[in-house]
Design a protein that fits this description.
The protein has eleven helices and ten strands. It has 281 residues and is of the alpha+beta class.
Length: 281
Amino acid sequence: MDGTSVVDESAGGRPAGPMAGHAAWYTGYRQAGLVPGRHRGLPSPFLTLIFTLDDPLTVSVHPEPGRGPAQYDALVGGLHTAPAVITHPGRQSGVQVGLDPLAARALLGVPAGELAGLDLPAEALLGPVAAEVRERMLAAADWPARFAVLDDVLPRAARPCGAPPPEVRETWRLLRASRGRVPVSALAAEVGWSERHLAARFRAETGLSPKAAARVVRFDRARRLAAAGGGRLADLAAACGYFDQAHLAREFRALAGVAPSVWRAEEFRNVQAAPVPAGAV
């Protein structure tokens, strides 16, 4: 790729086989010939797993404070409540996997709680499987073939590492199903634990407390609707369970680092900000 012609490709896919139990969606992207820019990796209810194709991924600002810029051929990122900033020189390409945090034990060998707020080279957790995924995706003919590589190769990284407690699984299911609108007291009553015990066990497994997870689930839905042109901010606030427009605007500033209007302008052409396939959230 010579960087002079404009390339703007994106594609979405659904995991199949064993990966259907680990991930919610795949997104492939390849852009070139654009103005250098940046992308905000926002808080999400999914772990981030990215395999680059042509150029390394440059994370200039990490959710974890105090770290300098870093480059990755493949990256794993835990749940977080602060944005990462990814810069590119006018081109970027790769495949992103929306990984269920409760699948971290099976696929990555550690609970997602150990990855909270971190981004790491994928090979640190996946071993040689990470390099094999990249090599085979580079040789694949199109996006469906690249997604098929993930379905075929990633399950080989699976290893026994226990299982999340059923109470944590049920809490996560209720949070997702309600789109983050169930009070923590109701979650605790439903699973039969005290709020304090639930908070401790849920954080150890996912990296977030139930309250923080509910906040991220609500925000993720709001920002995806905003990216899809979901109308006025007041309407988004009402649809996503915020008190009012000002409440949603405060959440954007806290979790994205900028006002909603600024984020929309920054992300207008960024394929990584596009909504995931229907039904995944």
